[in-house]
Amino acid sequence: MTFKTLRAVMVLMLMLGIASCSFASEASQAINDFAFNAGKIIAGDWDSDFFFSPYSIISAFGMAYAGAKGQTAGEIEAALGLSRDIHVSLGGLVRDLDRNGYVSSANRVWLNEGLKLRRDYTDILRLNYNSRVKELDFKGDTETSRKAVNDWVSAKTNGRIQDLLQTLDPETRMVITNAVYFNAEWKFKFSKNATKPEKFYTDGESYTEIPMMRMREDFSFAEFDGVKVVMLPYKGYRLSMIAVLPPKENPDVLKNIDAETFSHWLDAMNTYDVDLWLPKFRTEKRYELKGVFEAVGVKLAFTNEADFSGMTCDEQLKADQVIHQTFIQVDEERTEAAAATAVPMMMGTAMPVQRPRAEFHADHPFMYFIRDNETGTILFMGYQTFR
Fold first, then answer.
1. Which of 135, 150, 349, 383 is the most exposed place for a label (fewest CB within 10 A)?
2. How far is residue 112's CA from residue 172's CA, in Å, rounded to a whole number?
3. Cα separation of 258 and 33, whole Å?
C-alpha cells in the first residue's frame, strides 16, 4: 500500500493542577520509569522550571500503542516497558483514582469523517480507557475541528488548559487526547498570615524574592547525603506532594535521581517535627514531546514505516507530534495540581511524643512530585527554579 501523508496527533494534557495494587502495578512502573527518563530530557541544562504529567502522557500513548503492530509495537514495548496488559492496568488505575475524587481523567479519540476503526481497537478504547470516538471534518473544516478539540480539553480541565491545539494540519486523520485534572486540599493547611517574602537563591548567590509559605508540623521526612525529602499529604492521605531539596552547594545531585532511588528514599522515611518552608507558585508549560519519545527509543511511530494497522485498515497512519500542556498552582490551602487540612491532636492523657526535629527550607531549586500513595504512581513531576 502506498503510504499517504497522514497524521495521528497524540495530545496530552495536564491540567491543574498527579504500595502497590496488583491491577495497577504495570501501569505504575511504566509511568514512574517514564517520569524519570523523560524528566532528565525535559530538564535539559536544569536551568529553568519544568512540570509535566507522566500519568497523562502514558495514558495517551497507551491508546496509540493499542493500535500498534509489528516492529512499531515492539519498539514501544522495549522503550516504555509496556505489554498488552497495560491497557487493563491503566484502566484499573484510572477508575480507582477517579473514585477518590481528587483526580479526574478523560480520554477521547477524534477521527476524520469516513475513517473506520477496527472493532477490537474501539473495544480496547471503550473498555479500558472509557474513550468515546467522535468524527470531525479535519480536511474540510479544519478550524471548527480544532476548536471542538480545544473546547473539550478546556471543559475537562476546568478551563485551565486553553488552545491546546494552536494549529491543526488539514491532513490530520486522528487526534488522541487525554486530559487530567487534579484539585486537592492540604491535610495540614498553611496559615496565610505566615506567608512572607523570602529570598529564593536561583543560582549560587543570585536570588529573587518570592512568597514563602511556612509551617511546623509532623511530616514523613528523610535525609540522604544532604538531600532532604518531605511528604506533604493531601486531605484523605491517598495523595501526597513529595518535595526533594538538594544541598544548596550541590544542586546537581538531582540529575542522578531515578525511580529506584526515589522508591528507596520513600521507604526510609520516618515522622519528624518539620520546620517547613515551601514557595507559593504557579507554573504553566507547553511541550512538544516527539523528541523525548525518540530519545527514549520510540522512533518508528513517527516515520513512514510506522505500523498502526491495529487501529484501521482504511489508511496507513503515523504519529506526527505529541503535545503536552500543563498547569499547577500551589498555595496555602490547596494544589490545583492542593489541600484542606486537619491537625491531628494527642489525647491529653497520653505522654507527649517527642519527634526528631528537621528543617526543610525550600529557598533554592527543588524537585517535587504529586503521587498516589496506594499504588506509588507519580501523577505529576516538576522542578522549580524561579528563573
1. 349
2. 7
3. 8
